[in-house]
């Protein structure tokens, strides 16, 4: 009986060791699950000035001859809430270059992933929603708002061919004197669109309240901040 009991105890000990071993190995070998999506983002606004730089209808002229001035960086958390510089004071008639940067949960910059090439970029478009802006094409004095996506090349080096291909990772913006007044709450939206939708988006569609129903898809980013337009200088 003693021998049988000893053998039984030894067998149980071996089984327990094997089970613990498998448990330990399984735990150590489990892959680390990293959350998908975008962990943080920034929007950088840089004033662009020069005699040739001016608003015209739904777009700007003279940007390639413009001189860049001071920049301000808005920082956003994973929920699109501004954690730094979320309330902007902008000169109403100034033109600002807007650059998006975004990082995934691996710490990798991903903004260029949306414009890697034409076939990829065809699925994405940026909007600037809210604020009830009077758009520049509706202004008799050319002092309304413009938001103009303006990439010149895809990441693969191929030229972006016209307004229907631009995405808005790089954009230019002006508030315009006709939008001076109370603080405007706006949201920079990067939207993933259904097939064929992007080619139907006009330059004046950037501020549409019905953009979700008109341009089917889903939002990748919604970055919320405030703009207070100040009188500033005049041309």
Write the topology of this structure:
Layout: H1 2-29, E1 38-49, E2 54-56, E3 59-61, E4 67-76, E5 82-84, E6 87-91, E7 95-104, H2 118-121, E8 124-130, E9 146-149, E10 170-174, E11 184-193, H3 211-214, E12 217-230
Quick tags:
235 residues, alpha+beta, six-stranded antiparallel sheet, four-stranded mixed sheet, 12 strands, globular
Overview of this protein structure:
With 235 residues, the chain is of the alpha+beta class. Helix content is 15%, strand content 37%. The protein contains 3 helices and 12 strands. The strands form 3 sheets. Strands 5-4-1-7-10-9 form a 6-stranded antiparallel sheet, with no helix packed on it. The chain has a 4-stranded mixed sheet with strand order 6-12-11-8, with no helix packed on it. It is globular. The protein starts with a helix and ends in a 5-residue tail after the last strand. The model is unreliable at 14-27 (pLDDT under 50).
Choose one word for the global shape. Answer: globular
Multimer state? single chain
In helices, the fraction of residues equals 10-25%
Order of helices and strands: HEEEEEEEHEEEEHE
């Amino acid at each position: 009986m003693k021998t049988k009991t000893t053998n039984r105890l030894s067998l149980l000990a071996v089984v327990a060791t094997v089970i613990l071993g498998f448990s330990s190995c399984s735990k150590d070998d489990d892959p680390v699950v990293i959350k998908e999506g975008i962990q943080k983002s920034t929007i950088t606004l840089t004033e662009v000035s020069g005699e040739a730089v001016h608003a015209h209808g739904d777009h700007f002229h003279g940007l390639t001859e413009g001189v860049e001035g001071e920049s301000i960086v808005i920082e956003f958390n994973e929920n699109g809430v501004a954690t730094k510089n979320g309330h902007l004071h902008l000169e109403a008639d100034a033109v600002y270059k807007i650059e998006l940067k975004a990082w995934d949960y691996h710490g990798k910059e991903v903004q260029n992933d949306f414009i890697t090439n034409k076939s990829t970029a065809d699925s994405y478009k940026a909007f600037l929603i809210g604020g009830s802006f009077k758009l520049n094409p509706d202004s008799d004095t050319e002092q309304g708002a413009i938001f103009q996506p303006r990439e010149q090349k895809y990441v693969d080096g191929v030229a972006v061919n016209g307004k229907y291909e631009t995405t808005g990772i790089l954009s230019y913006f002006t508030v315009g004197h006709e939008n001076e007044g109370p603080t405007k709450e706006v949201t920079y939206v990067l939207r993933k669109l259904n097939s064929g939708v992007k080619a139907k988006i006009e330059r004046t569609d950037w501020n549409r309240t019905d953009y979700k129903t008109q341009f089917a898809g889903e939002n990748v980013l919604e970055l919320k901040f405030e703009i207070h337009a100040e009188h500033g200088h005049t041309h």
